[in-house]
TrEMBL record:
It comes from the Bacteria. It holds the Pfam family Peripla_BP_3. SMART domains: HTH_LACI (SM00354). The lineage of its organism: Bacteria, Pseudomonadati, Pseudomonadota, Alphaproteobacteria, Sphingomonadales. It comes from Altericroceibacterium indicum. Residues 6-60 form the HTH lacI-type domain. This is LacI family DNA-binding transcriptional regulator. GO terms for molecular function: DNA-binding transcription factor activity; transcription cis-regulatory region binding.
Amino acid sequence: MAEKIRTIYDLAKLAGVSGATVSRALAGKDVVNSKTAEKIRKLAADHGFRPSSIARNLRMQKKGAIGVVIPLGHDKTQHISDPFFMTLIGALADELTEKGFDLVLSRIIPDTDDWLNRMIDSDRVDGYIIIGQSNQSKTLDRVAQSYLPMVAWGAFAQGQIHCSVGTDNFLGGMLAASHLIDKGCKKLAFCGNTQAIEMALRLDGAKEAVKQSGKDVSLVETPTHLAAELSGTDIAAFLDSTDEMPDGIFAGSDLIALTAIQVLVGRGLSVPNDVRVIGFDDLLLAQTSVPTLTTIRQDITSGAKHLVECLLARINGAPTGSIVLNPELIQRAST
């Protein structure tokens, strides 16, 4: 029985060359004679030998893994199982796998200002993708001054130092509120947690739409948790306490919007006849809910691609600028 080939050194012994020559041949380096390289590759194929990705990454001084981090400074109750997180993580996993990287996922409750520095100092991955800036924009800016391989999904603010990829949340908020106003709504409510910069910009955009409408339209903010098991209670408490029932609800996420619909229907109200509801994200849930949900679409697949491309460029030492994606109004039955 032929001896099992386990390492490049076993293969080198069989081929009568050095381990370095085998390594270069399998990596496709031109410095190896073509005839020798062909012989080495054929021997490797005949013996079912595949070089260790760990060894290859060590030679390249890379770990072969990317850290994907979800910081929850603004809402510690939110879960990784949130449909938005799962959708973006899935898209990132697809992109990273195609590029030969593993994904290392972390959910972080920022307890000190150096939480990100501690992760970087652990030296476990080649770079970081941060999903959502939460209320940690200052931390990201501080770290980005000395650490290049990091990109965040989220909002872009003038003057920020860290690289971000995300939707124009201000414009998205304008589109949402303008749509409700065009549908005849006069009493708008925004449901979301504006400690997160993205949510704050969505609310600011909605306020600007109300201002530009020139109509007698009011807009109130009702702080709402992002976790579904808590947002329903928040929305119900708001409806109980308000003197004027809203005729239009702009929810900061699809999940909040769908919860709002459940609360309204549970009170005998009809959507959209009594209250029109619009969300933000355009997740699969928005397309399959009853009624189907009008929402502001974020191009999550394109966003994941941009995140990975920017990060890989930064891993290779090339700074990249932030990318702002255009939102899109998707009208369905809830408005």
